[in-house]
Amino acid sequence: MRSVKNKITVAGSAYVLSLFLAPAAFPCECYIRKHRTDFRRAKAVFLGQVIGIDRGIDRTERFSEGIIYSAKFKVERAWKGSRKSEVAVFARIYLVNCGGGFDFQPGERYLVYVFNDENKLVTYTECSRTRPYSRSSVETDKELKQLDSFWFRLFSRAIPF
Question: How far is CA 88 from the centre of its chain?
Fold first, then answer.
């Protein structure tokens, strides 16, 4: 009887422990929200060409973990946000220890979703909709058509789901 009780205790303890460790077991999973949700939450959405990279960010300027550099874009087309012809944003790695993502390259064009993080304009280089424009795919083409649609932009702002 005591042996069965010990086995149940050990099994129960192992189960409870696995519940606490499960999130740590897969820390590199990306969760991409609906396009409408990302558009609504973004501070700015634009298509732009990188005209400058500043990797000399002082340690004190790295206001949150994962900021790696600043990129300056010449805005070719904007769907949301400022109508300035140039904008500088911080590039941030969402999952610092997972690898992946990409580096912005001078002269290359990107579809960029910019978010407000601690009053700074930040874009994520992994696990986000920000991506090189040259890597045009069916999904990117669909997304661009949605961005061009007045109704998509209106309903994204008006309906919160």
Answer: 16
CA distance 84 to 69: 21
CB within 8 Å of 60: residues ≥ 6 apart: none
Nearest to 98 by CA among 129, 65, 74, 144: 65
* R_g (Cα) of the chain, nearest Å: 21
Say yes or no to pLDDT of 160 above 80. no
Q: What is the pLDDT of residue 44?
A: 93
The full set of domain ranges for the chain reads 35-158
Any idea which residue has 């997972």 for tokens? 98
CATH number of the domain at 35-158, out of 2.40.50.120, 3.30.70.270, 2.170.120.40, 3.55.10.10? 2.40.50.120
Q: What is the pTM of this model?
A: 0.74
How far apart are the C-alpha atoms of 1 and 24, rounded to whole Å?
A: 36
d(CA 118, CA 100): 24
